[in-house]
Amino acid sequence: MADRQARSERSRGVVQARPRLAPAFVAASLGVATLGLLAFLRQASEAVSIWLTWRTAAEMTGPGAIAVAVWLGSWAILAVVWRSRDVSRRTAILCLVLVAAGALLAIPPLDRLFL
Question: Would the pTM count as exceeding 0.85?
Fold first, then answer.
């Protein structure tokens, strides 16, 4: 019975994961996307750059701290909300797209293509 259910879930595109890993995976992708977006906005706008540059720290400290806050905050929220939820392939693909977009936006030569 359990084998039949596992095959049925695999055919529907449900990836069996530990419940604690799904929130961490999604939260990490949100953190990377946030860092990439803030790095891009810092380059695009002088006002955003001033707001994100903290007085005694390096230029990327503001975006880095905000991205870490988004990562940890979303992990805490999703750990409660997704306590026993499985991650579908669609969710995994969305997370990979967020990571790729965040990484591409944070790379300096590529952000100049959009500015």
Answer: no
